[in-house]
TrEMBL record:
One of its GO terms (molecular function) is ATP binding. GO terms for biological process: phosphorelay signal transduction system; regulation of DNA-templated transcription. Coiled coil: none annotated. Pfam families: AAA_lid_14, HTH_8, Response_reg, Sigma54_activat. Residues 169-398 form the Sigma-54 factor interaction domain. Residues 14-127 form the Response regulatory domain. This is Sigma-54-dependent Fis family transcriptional regulator. InterPro entries: AAA+_ATPase (IPR003593), AAA_lid_NorR (IPR058031), CheY-like_superfamily (IPR011006), Homeodomain-like_sf (IPR009057), HTH_Fis (IPR002197), P-loop_NTPase (IPR027417), Sig_transdc_resp-reg_receiver (IPR001789), Sigma_54_int (IPR002078). Gene3D superfamilies: 1.10.8.60, 3.40.50.2300, Homeodomain-like (1.10.10.60), P-loop containing nucleotide triphosphate hydrolases (3.40.50.300). The modification 4-aspartylphosphate is found at residue 64. Keywords: Activator, ATP-binding, DNA-binding, Nucleotide-binding, Phosphoprotein, Transcription, Transcription regulation, Two-component regulatory system.
Length: 492
């Protein structure tokens, strides 16, 4: 049985590990959580744990993969407690094993031996995502008011926006609301943040918002674009150098890490970093110290690390281009920024803001978009995301005059994405032709039933392989497990 949302009560933590010593050590994580916890329940036998999961409330379940027989044995746990935070642990850690565990229903993975702080951070993040009404210990509240905001309460996205921290991030869609919530929850933490997303989705804006909402915002956020700096210069840019370290080094120079002392160091496009430099960065993250290029003395700084990449970090690790140990050190608080095609509700809001801005800059009189232009903007897939939309609107403003943006003003690529050279379709007529037929209410299939049909058809297509079906549907395997559990409950 998963935890029941809406019920205010202490958190229940269960640990399954055949080693009593490991189980007791893992259970001590409850003392590090910022929520009130019941006494943890420890198990060494899988069957006994499964029985209690079926009968009793569970908020957090930490499982040793060797005890249950591997990551493939996670399914019964995911089905029995669909709303429970499941953390898989193993002494035989690898990227492929972590991926398989999460595909099979785990929410996160840790390699033994792990620190209780690391486990507590992962559990706290997952609990925050579920937003249960748990009793928070006032003396350990994670979302304390930022000292920089003084009397302003920025513990919610709306309050943070009023404080100006989220002004640069635009969008009211559900995917963006989830991002705002993550930013507000993660900002007070000192743990590293790992931002992923396609080019043009706003990763640097996200990093700036995290810094503004943190208690470090009186100090600088220093940004290094790892893709824009030559490999032979990037080490000196991050860690600095002393006079005589190389030809042309005529004076000592502090690097980005030293300049960010007390503030935030943002490493953009970290996937482009050379493997040798990744090793030095890992040591810096572990110890908080580094040596300037050409120096023998260590420098200690206190900087929060935020990094970003437009690549798939796990794929980079598997390909040997990114250190696995560095990935696990950085990937503590992940944020995935959605592409613009997955937040179409925001397209016209963004377009209107860009139109107003550039019309003012270029002294044009544009006020809005006509209906056909709107349809084309909404239908286009925007592979370059918000940056492409911004540049498109600027081009329109510079190259045209008028009060409304018409379809003829749009670039041909957006008017006709397929590259056809035929005449422009009269979209208003097309819309008039395609009015939906009115159907009797009783013939409309409920949304949950449509979901079930689609998921079950996909499972049949992949011979019951949940991981492959989830990948095809672009959802997580744990979502399928939870849907199956909800169908079972409906049929009872």
């Amino acid at each position: 049985m998963g935890s029941k949302e809406g019920l205010t009560r202490p958190v229940m933590v269960r640990v399954l590990d055949c080693s009593p010593a490991d189980a007791a050590r893992t259970a001590a994580v409850s003392a590090k959580l910022a929520v009130e916890c019941e006494d943890p329940s420890l198990y060494s036998v899988t069957e006994r744990c499964l029985e209690d999961l079926t009968r009793d409330n569970t908020d957090v379940l930490v499982l040793d993969l060797e005890t249950i027989g591997g990551e493939s044995a996670l399914e019964p746990f995911a089905v029995r407690c669909p709303s429970t935070v499941i953390i898989a642990v193993s002494a035989q850690g690898s990227v492929s094993r972590a991926v398989n565990a999460m595909r099979s229903g785990a929410h996160d993975f840790l390699t033994k031996p792990f620190s209780l702080d690391a486990l507590a951070s992962k559990i706290s993040f997952q609990l925050d995502q579920r937003k249960p009404n748990l009793s928070i210990r006032s003396e350990k509240t994670l979302l304390t008011k930022s000292a920089s905001l003084e009397a302003t309460d920025a513990s919610t996205p709306s309050a943070a926006r009023k404080a100006g921290a989220l002004d640069q991030l635009i969008g009211k869609s559900l995917p963006m609301q989830a991002v705002y919530d993550q930013i507000v929850r993660m900002a007070p933490s000192q743990a590293p943040v790992f931002i992923t997303g396609e080019s043009g989705t706003g990763k640097e804006l996200c990093a700036n918002a995290l810094h503004k909402l943190s208690d470090r915002n009186k100090q600088r956020i220093v940004t290094i674009n790892c893709a824009a700096i030559p490999r032979d210069l990037i080490e000196s840019e991050i860690f600095g150098y002393v006079r005589g370290a190389f030809t042309g080094a005529t004076e000592n120079r502090a690097g980005a890490a030293e300049q960010a002392d007390g503030g935030t160091l943002f490493l953009d496009e970290i996937g482009e970093m050379d493997l040798m430099l990744q090793s030095k960065l890992l040591r810096f993250l572990q110890t908080g110290t580094f040596q300037r290029l050409g120096d023998t003395k260590s420098v200690k700084v206190d900087a929060r690390i935020i990094c970003a990449t437009n690549r798939n970090p796990l794929a980079e690790v598997s390909a040997g281009r990114f250190r696995e140990d560095l990935y696990y050190r950085l990937h503590v608080l992940p944020i995935l920024l959605p592409p613009l095609r997955e937040r179409r509700d925001d397209i016209m809001d963004l377009a209107q803001i860009f139109l107003q801005r550039f019309s003012s800059e270029e002294r044009r009189g544009f006020k809005g978009f006509d209906a056909d232009a709107e349809v084309s903007l909404l239908a286009y897939n925007w592979p370059g995301n918000v940056r492409q939309l911004e540049n498109t609107i600027r081009q329109i403003v510079v190259m045209n005059e008028g009060q409304s943006v018409t379809i003829d003003m749009l670039p041909m690529l957006i008017r006709d994405p397929s590259g056809r050279t035929t005449s422009v379709i009269d979209l208003s007529r097309e819309r008039a032709k395609s009015q939906p037929t009115i159907r009797p209410f009783g013939t409309i299939e409920p949304l949950w039933a449509q979901e079930r049909r689609i998921i079950e058809d996909t499972l049949v297509a992949f011979d019951g392989n949940i991981a492959m079906a989830a990948a095809a549907l672009e959802i997580s395997p744990s979502t399928i497990y939870r849907k199956k559990q909800s169908w079972l409950e409906r049929s009872c």
